[in-house]
Design the sequence.
């Protein structure tokens, strides 16, 4: 059976038998795969801790009939241990890997892999607030999947301007002419924050107010749930910061 190597981030795991585990991986070159890690739940396992959620590893696998098998694992990013020490980071990371799992259902992409690894690394280092990191990740992951929201021009007709009406079903902000009756309005500063999170403008995002962050998070959650048919079960459990970071 062919043997191959690849870098991978662990999305989730399931117990198999008494000592094995099935791991769902987003890899750098082979997309999303499911593989068996034999004996990893034994105390003396050489690479059990390297195959926990949020960990990044260099793996050697061989192709099986239904599931591949992990034969070697070398740690590249021990983010899991650091993330699980912080509840906000842990809940955000769970939502991230669940989104990555759903967005790469058919096949993965290098861009999705690099985005997820970068977001988990940032969470583990507490570079930004966990909630900001999650919101930015969701917007950018959805954009890579082909669902880029518009937070400048009207998402329906393309009219240029500073629009404050948001319709997630139409793809972002819309002009007054395209806005359905009763469409909610948000502050211009919230629209600017949404654009900053999509662009990765951390200086602007970190200077935002709690009010703008709360509104932006709600819109991003609704936009994510709209495009992912089954939604994210982890999202309602995310711990949101109440003070600016």
Sequence:
């Amino acid at each position: 059976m062919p043997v191959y190597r690849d870098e991978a981030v662990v999305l989730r795991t399931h117990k198999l038998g008494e000592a094995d585990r099935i791991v769902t991986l987003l890899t750098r070159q082979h997309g999303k795969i499911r593989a068996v890690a034999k004996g990893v739940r034994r105390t003396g396992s050489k690479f059990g801790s390297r195959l926990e959620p949020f960990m990044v590893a260099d793996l050697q696998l061989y192709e099986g009939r239904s599931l591949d098998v992990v034969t070697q694992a070398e740690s590249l990013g021990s983010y899991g241990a650091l993330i699980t020490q912080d509840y906000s980071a842990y809940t955000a990371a769970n939502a991230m890997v669940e989104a990555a799992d759903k967005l790469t259902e058919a096949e993965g992409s290098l861009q999705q892999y690099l985005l997820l690894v970068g977001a988990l690394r940032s969470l583990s280092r507490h570079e930004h607030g966990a909630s900001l990191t999650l919101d930015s990740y969701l917007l950018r992951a959805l954009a890579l999947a082909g669902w880029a929201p518009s937070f400048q021009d009207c998402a329906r007709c393309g009219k240029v301007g500073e629009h404050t009406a948001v319709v997630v079903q139409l793809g972002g902000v819309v002009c007054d002419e395209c806005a359905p009756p009763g469409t909610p309005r948000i502050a211009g500063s919230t629209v600017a924050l949404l654009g900053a999170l999509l662009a990765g403008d951390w200086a602007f995002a970190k200077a935002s107010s709690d009010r703008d962050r709360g509104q932006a998070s709600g819109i991003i959650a609704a936009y994510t749930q709209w495009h992912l048919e089954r939604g994210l079960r982890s999202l309602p459990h995310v711990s949101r910061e109440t003070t600016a970071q």
Notes: The first strand starts at residue 3 and ends at 16. The chain has a mean pLDDT of 92.
